[in-house]
Each structure stands twice: as structure tokens, then as C-alpha cells.
Please model this.
Amino acid sequence: MATAFPDLRDKLRAGSGGVGSAGECGEGGRKRRAEPASEGEEDEDEETGVESPGADEVARKVQSGVLQARPFTDSECERIEACIDDVVALAERGAYKVRTVDRAPLRNKYFFGEGYTYGSQLVKRGPGQERLYPRGEVDPIPQWIYDLVIRRLEERRIVAKGFVNSAVINDYLPGGCIVSHVDPIHIFDRPIVSVSFFSDSALSFGCKFSFRPIRVSKPVLSLPIAQGCVTVISGYAADEITHCIRPQDIKARRAVIILRRTRINAPRLDPSCLPELPDHLTNRVRRPDKRESPSVRRSSHRKASPYEAHRRRVLAMDEEADKRALVLRTPPYPDGTREHRSDNSPPRSKRPRH
Ligand SMILES: O=C(O)CCC(=O)C(=O)O
Model:
């Protein structure tokens, strides 16, 4: 029976010698990279972690594009965290539109207001290819996000009134991560605002990721992001360098609400061109036409379970891997190719099941 690494921090601890001797063998121990080829990542040697000259200057430039504040009290944070749990529970009950929820191992995303194609959903892949979904493909921004979060940020002039039209919740389990990326410049205006909950973490700039085993280079800048903290990035920090969340920086469950504005001229998919949904999303508990409207949803007494929410995705992946193994009769990915997930989650384990 295969043993996956449910927590990517275990992979990091295991190092290259100790990881997935069976699952990683197709790769022949080669190191693989997975991040955009650009965005000011030239400042570090990935093997040695030695910074080349200029890293301090880059760090200063990043810092100049970052603002942080803590506009919520502890009890306000708790209230918002309870609302995030409600979102998780609603998603588990299938109460959201299919494209609102994107599950990955150790990291689930909930898109509100606007959603867009990325990663494996892209017909043509790579930066610049992302497209907004047709209007109405994802659920609207929940009222509590306006009332408890956006309004406060507007009052404190952290964001301009009426700026936000997109809210994404990322819910991470320990060891979850988001690989290095720049939020698509043709889709989102600047600044990019994020509010962190449940636990402290760090936003890293200018990291390189490699996989099997997963390794992340030393950041040009590691920005602490405490629970309840708002982080606003613009300028160099948003456009000229990648940012990521490293697996070793998610030590306990963490969620972030990312508040952005889509560009008025951002390219939008025609409804006839919607990408197909992956298998694990088409096998949903509830058919879309049976979806409850928010106003008639039954109240749920079930406590939200982020762990359960992630577990379902992992099980679906196991089933997919089983299917592939049957069809191929060889370990999946025999050519050693890495699955591309430019949705910024790391590639999942390619370990064959025994
Ligand atoms: O988790 C965070 O604070 C950052 C997430 C992020 O950069 C993203 O989802 O694009």
C-alpha cells in the first residue's frame, strides 16, 4: 500500500534520499522545477542557498511595495474565522456552484464574485493565458465578507471604497503551500489585499520550487503574516517578483481571504468555451440544478471540518490514480513529467499504488 505524504513538511524533512523511493523512481532522481521563468528570481543558487549580490536591494524593492496592518480585534478575527468555517461546511454540502470550489491536497480555494481559469483548466498554458469565467459561474461575494472584512478595510482606507469585486478564500492544512507566482496582471488590478486567519505564517518572495522531493529555495524576502494581519502588495512586490507560501510556513491550519479587483478589460471566456470540469468535480454530491439558493439553505448544525473537506479531495485523487494505473499498466507519468498545476498548488504525489 502506498504511503503518501499527507503533510508536505514531511517531504521536506525527508530530503531527497528519503522520499518516495517507489513513487519517485520514474523520475530517476532528477530535480524538477515549477515556477514562472521570469520575475526576478535570479538572485539565488538553489543548491547552496547562497545569495548573489543584489538580493538586499531586491528585498528593499519588495518591501517598498508591501503594507501591513492589523485592523481586527481578536474577537473579530474569531467571528470571521467562524464564517470561514461556514463556507467550508456549505461547500461540503455542495451548496456552492461547481466553479466556486477548487480542492487540492492540503489547500482548498473558494472563489467568490469572479473566478478564472488557471492551471490544468487552461487550453493553452502559461502566464497570460488566464481568463475570467463568464459572469455568474461562481457564487457572489458572501455578505459577511463585505460586512466584517471589506467595510473595515474601506473605513481604514486600506482599500478604496467599492474597489473589491473578487474574494478568494484559501484554506490550508499544515504543510500546504502555493507555489511561486505573480497574480495575473491582465486579470487583476493592483493592489492585492489579503487577510490572514487561524494561524501565523509567512509570505515568501522570489523562491524557486523543485519537486520530488519538494524543495523551496531561500526567499529573497520572507514576510511574517500574523493571524488577523492585512497585507497589501503593489508595485515591485506584486508585479516584478513572484510570491509563494512555502510548506514549512504552514504549521497549523491557516486561511487567507484575498481581495482583488478584476481589470475592466480582463479577457473573459465565452460561455461556449468553458473548460470541462475534472472528474472529481463532476461526481459531485448534488447536481447543479438542485442547488439551494443561499436564502433557502437549510441550517446546518454540523461543525465545519476543514480536514474532512481536504480528505474528500485526496480520496478522489486516489481513485483517479487507480484508474490511470489500470489503463497504463505502468506507474503513472513514466516519462517523469511533472503534472502542471499553475493554480499554484504543488504537484500531487505520482507514487503508484501497490
Ligand atoms: O496565502 C496567502 O497569503 C497568499 C495566497 C496567494 O498568493 C494566492 O492564492 O494567489
